[in-house]
Amino acid sequence: MFEFVLVAGVHSITTVSEVSVKAGKSISIPCLYESQYKNHVKYLCEGYDWTFCKYAVKTNEADPSGKYLISDDKKLKIFTVTINQLTNENTNYWCVVEINKGEDYKQYFQLSVTSGTPSLYVDHQRITGYIGESITIRCHHSNSGEMKWCRLGRNCVTGSSGSIDGAAVTTHMRDPNVFTVTMSGLKSENSGWYWCAKGDIQIPVYLNVTVKPITTSFDPRILIIPVSVLIWIVIVVLFIWFILRHSEYY
């Protein structure tokens, strides 16, 4: 089993190790790289054996089939690969940074494709939270092992409470098959990739923290008093007009 790896001072790529996915669906996988490689080409390579793996998609070449998508967030130093229409043949991949005149840096990950319900999944892989508020993520699971909530390349929360990059994290298991994570006091810097884990299986989640939009709703009750006053004025004007008009005949 391949483990989640990040070793200081060593050229590396950090990603999840194994993700359970449903056939026919899509999955996005984040790959964290070191800052000196932000301008390098990144790519996804398909195959269990690195020696014989084949290019799936590269940051400098679009995939005309639409099967694979790739994007590179140079600010966060993460490139993300999306694999669409998953099949049982889409199981072994490598996140790779291309190195000119040297061996490419790579990290393996595995997809466990199932026709049934994945052993670990979330309601939405991409979610939006608002600055100063809270966000809750539900991690549905059916396998055994320790539960974790981690930020990619950072620390993990394994107990009932903790913090990640200044955001308070609380977890609970009220439902035996749902691990619930709540992040409170969100800040813009909390935007990024996280992952929920149950045993050896992980599921990546992208959190976008932004300013809450201002919404204005129209309450018709606010017109009651102005309309009532207007009606009263109209009645008074008509009454005066009637009196004046009537007096002309006398």
Radius of gyration: 28 Å
Q: Provide the CATH topology of the largest domain.
A: Immunoglobulin-like
Which regions are unreliable across 5 or more consecutive residues at pLDDT < 50?
Answer: 1-10
Q: Per the principal axes of the C-alpha atoms, what is the gross shape?
A: elongated
Q: How widely separated are the two ends? A: 108 Å
Strand residue percentage: 35-45%
Strand order of the largest sheet: 1-8-7-3-4
- CATH top level class name of the largest domain: Mainly Beta
- Number of DSSP E strands: 18
Q: If helices are DSSP runs of H or I spanning 4 or more residues, what is the number of helices?
A: 1
Key features of this structure:
250 residues, mainly beta, Immunoglobulin-like, 2 domains, 10% helix, disordered N terminus
Overview of this structure, please?
The strands form four sheets. Strands 1-8-7-3-4 form a five-stranded mixed beta sheet, with no helix packed on it. The chain starts with 17 loop residues before the first strand and ends with a helix. The protein is elongated and about 110 Å long. The longest helix has 24 residues, at 224-247. The protein has one helix at residues 224-247, and strands at residues 18-22, 27-32, 42-46, 54-58, 68-73, 78-83, 92-97, 105-114, 120-122, 126-130, 135-141, 147-151, 156-157, 161-164, 167-175, 178-184, 192-198, 201-210. The chain has two domains: 18-114, Immunoglobulins (Immunoglobulin-like, Sandwich); 120-210, Immunoglobulins (Immunoglobulin-like, Sandwich), CATH 2.60.40. 10% of the residues lie in helices and 43% in strands. With 250 residues, it is mainly beta.
